[in-house]
Amino acid sequence: MAGPYYLHFYGRFGTSPGGLTVPLLLTLVWFLVATVLLVTRRRGGVPVMASFLVVEALFYLVHNVSGAAGRDLPAGDIVLLVASLLGDLNALAAVLVLGWLFVTRRRTRPGDRRTINSR
Question: Could you tell me which residues come within 8 angstroms of residue 83 by beta carbon, excluding any fewer than 6 positions away?
Answer without folding.
Answer: 5, 72
